[in-house]
Design a protein that fits this description.
The chain is α/β, with parallel strands linked by helices. It is 42% helix and 14% strand. Helix 9 packs parallel to helix 15.
Length: 418
């Protein structure tokens, strides 16, 4: 691997032990993947924030790195924590877990990482430019950055992303290179795909087929998307952004997709109409029924309804509030979102509407990485294919998956509609 004089100096420890450790991680990862050089990164998004995931060993690892003087050198944000960092008691979180979660976030902020605690950094100001090189961790955010925004990032592990934030570099391999962004599979959609949950079901089905490949999807009716999409708060582009957020999350959770292209919609597919090679494997999607069946358990009674996986946008919170205004809920409803979106929703009176019905608008967190075993929920309804995919294995919950309206009906009745 060719290193610049500055990179050699960091590797030799001239920037301190914390920076040397970061460079060793980045260079080692690059060597594993045969990278020829390093690339400067525009921003970083770090996963591995919930104490439920990192544990005592991970917390000590972070504290030790911070004590070595490690500090980020590029803008870096955090993935969700295992609780709402301000209102964790309302979630039913124990004081002991809260103490350890706060310590984990503090270890990151001691190194200069911004505690956004969201899986949608592009909705809270971390919007990368087209072609920018990043080191992002959260799988759904990686998909969004690569596909919708045209930025370039591999699906980084938490320590690798943090190392990139500290040394300001990542290895040039995979999706950072033109060759890594060429489609490996062609998907021809031949059935109606209209609602956000349709897109989630499609993503789940395609992700199972392509694994870690790069699908090129044809037959979807969406407006063109790009750098302005996460900034849109209404209209077709905002709706498309929310829809593609759910699509990418599903692709990344049922498979390991980090980039997809949609014919005539995503920026690279628009710029290069012949982007997809003619000799790749082809999948025809004729019916989403099998995907929906796979995403649903046999649960009838619903304990918890979750909307906001990935974190809900302001537009989505508006839809939820409109759907339950003046109603009374029988099941728990958690709307998970980022702190800035929650604050905007509160200013519009949306949080009050949801909470008057009996729901909670939770910032900073996600059911997938919360300590759900400590809480009384055993079944969940959701409009997120990612949430439905991870529910049992990650949260110990039997899942029901369907449209937002059906989920809100379940919140009001306590049962999944027959």
């Amino acid at each position: 691997m060719r290193l610049t004089p500055e990179e050699e100096a960091l590797l030799a420890g001239e920037g301190g032990e914390g920076a040397r450790r970061a460079m060793r991680i980045v260079v080692t990862l690059g060597s594993i993947y045969d990278a020829e050089r390093l690339l400067p990164v525009e921003s970083v998004q770090v996963a591995g924030v919930s104490f439920r995931n990192v544990g005592e060993a991970g917390l000590e690892f972070l504290r030790d790195w911070a004590a070595q003087g490690a500090r980020v050198t590029v803008p870096a944000t955090l993935n969700p924590a295992g609780m709402d960092m301000r209102d964790w008691r309302r979630m039913g979180i124990s004081a002991e877990f809260a103490r350890l979660q706060e310590a984990t976030v503090r270890a990151y902020t001691d190194m200069g990482v911004t505690a956004t605690c969201t899986c949608t950094p592009y909705l809270v100001g971390n919007v990368p430019s087209f072609g920018a090189h990043l080191a992002w961790s959260e799988s759904s955010a990686v998909c969004y950055a690569n596909a919708v925004l045209g930025a370039r990032t591999n699906r980084e592990g938490g320590p690798g992303a943090l190392a990139a934030a500290i040394c300001g570099r990542t290895a040039a391999y995979g999706l950072h290179l033109d060759a890594g962004r060429v489609p490996t599979h062609r998907v021809r959609v031949r059935c109606p795909v209209r609602t956000p949950d349709d897109y989630g079901a499609l993503g789940y089905w395609v992700g199972r087929w392509v694994g870690g490949g790069v699908p090129y999807i044809e037959g979807l009716d969406l407006p063109p998307v790009g750098a302005s999409t996460p900034l849109a708060v209404s209209g077709e582009e905002a709706a498309a952004g929310d829809t593609l957020k759910l699509l990418g999350a599903a692709l990344a959770s049922s498979g390991a997709v980090a980039l997809y292209h949609i014919h005539g919609v995503t920026p690279e597919a628009r710029a290069l109409p012949d982007l997809c090679p003619p000799d790749v494997a082809v999948m025809d999607v004729e019916d989403l029924g099998p995907a929906r069946q796979a995403l649903n358990s046999d649960a009838s009674a619903i304990d918890l309804v979750v909307v906001g996986c990935p974190h809900a946008s302001l537009t989505e919170v508006r839809h939820i509030a409109a759907g339950i205004r003046g109603k009374r809920l029988r099941a728990a409803l958690w709307v998970t979102t980022s702190r800035p979106v929650r604050e905007a929703a509160e200013a519009e009176g949306l949080v009050a509407t949801i909470e008057e019905a009996g729901g909670l608008v939770i910032a900073d967190s996600c059911v997938v990485i919360a300590p759900m075993a400590e809480l009384p929920y055993r079944t969940v309804a959701t409009n997120s294919a990612k949430m439905a995919t991870y529910a049992l294995g990650h949260a110990g919950l039997k899942a029901r998956f369907g449209p937002l309206e059906q989920c809100l009906d379940a919140a009001m009745s306590g049962r999944w509609p027959a």
